[in-house]
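Pipeline run #58 for the internal structure catalog. This entry was flagged by the ingest filter as a single-chain record with no existing model, so it goes straight to prediction. Upstream metadata was stripped on purpose; only the residue string is passed forward. Reviewer on rotation: M.T. Logging verbosity set to normal.
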Amino acid sequence: MTQAEAVAAFAGLLADRSRACICLALLDGRAWTVGELARHSRIAPLTASEHVSLLAGSGLLAEERQGRHRYVRLAGPDVADLVEDLAGVAGVPALPTSLRGARAAAELGAGRTCYDHLAGRLGVHLFDAMDANALLDTRNGLTLTEAGSAWLAELGCDLEFQGSRRPLLRTCLDWTERRHHLAGRAGAALHAALLSRGWTERGLRPRAVRLTEAGRDALADRLGIEAA
C-alpha cells in the first residue's frame, strides 16, 4: 500500500457519519458502552458494534470488557487531538432547532472539556489571558515563559503527569469560537488544577464546564479575566 493509499484508507474511517459521531462523543474522555454509543448516534446496537470494532482495529479506540459490557474510549490524547482538529476545520454545526438543543449548545459553547483540556469561550479566554500576561509566548510558535512555568507550578499543575511523549503545549482551533485554546500536557494539567481547586465545576450536560464564583474571582485577580 502506498502512502497515499494508506492516508486515504485512514481518512475513510471518519468519512462516515456514525463513526464520526462515535469519536466526537468520546471526546468527553469517558469510557462508553457500545449501547450508549448506539443510542447517542441513533443507530442499531449491532451497527454500532461493527463501527466500534473497525475503529478499534485501526487504533483509534481502546477497548476493555467488564462483565458483559464492552467499554470503549479514544485510544489517547493524540487521537483526541486529531478528532478535535477535524472538528475545528469542519466548522460550527448547524444551529439547533429546538429549545433543548439551543440550551445545550449555549452551555457547551460557554465552556466544555475537549478530552482532557478546556474549550469553548472559557478555554479561549484562558489562552488569550495567558498570552496577554506573558505566561505564553506566541510570537515565534508557542512556548511557555518562565513566568508561565512559575504560574502553573503555583496552581499545582503537574506538567509531566501524562508522560513526555505528548507535546507540552499545543493549540487547538476551537470549533465554536473559531479561535485557539490550549491543549497538550499544559492544557490538561491546567484543567485538572482548576477543577481540583474548585474554580471550575462540571455542568449539567456531559463535557460542560463552568466557572464557580471562586474561580471568577481568582481568574479576574490573577489573569484579568472579567467576562469568562
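catalog note: The longest strand covers residues 61-66.
catalog note: The mean pLDDT is 88.
status: ready for reviewer M.T.
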